[in-house]
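Q: You know discrete backbone vocabularies at least as well as I do. I have my own habits and do not want them to colour yours. No explanation is needed for now; the record alone will do.
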Amino acid sequence: MDHLSIRDEIEELIKSKKSHEFFTEVDKNLWKPVVQKIEESFIQKQHYTNSLHWGWQRLKDPQYVLRMVDTSNRYLKYFVNDDRVWFIVEDYKDKMWLYEGDTNFIIKNVIPELMHLREYYLISKKYEWLLCINHDDIVFGSGLEVVNKMKKFEQMNSEEIIRT
């Protein structure tokens, strides 16, 4: 790789794991309506040019935020029960890439392997909830289902939460 492209890193990962049935990039002709639906469902747009870039700062209610004692990806399994999800990663120059795949595969085999992963989103394919892990490794949730799971986790596992 001649630059720090997360997309290139993901393409290499997909090839090395032969994982097309578990995880694929959404076709460039299909991604726009998916991203628009995600933005409409979860992002407060103050300007028509707003996008998912730093979207965690503009999440719609209900929303919740947790900072964990360990890396956030270790806790994702507590918040996501869906079999398949949308997965969006931010690349350099604020470019976003959309994937879809098996939730467990993404959590166990994709996220931990990516060296240049900054901000990423896991989104219900029914557009019921959104999770974002930002560049500071803070978990942001939007949507009643995921917010309730985050609050319950916090109540049951207070030792896993950093209070700020």
Notes: The longest helix spans residues 144-156. Helices lie at 6-17, 31-42, 103-110, 144-156. The mean pLDDT is 92. The first strand starts at residue 23 and ends at 25.
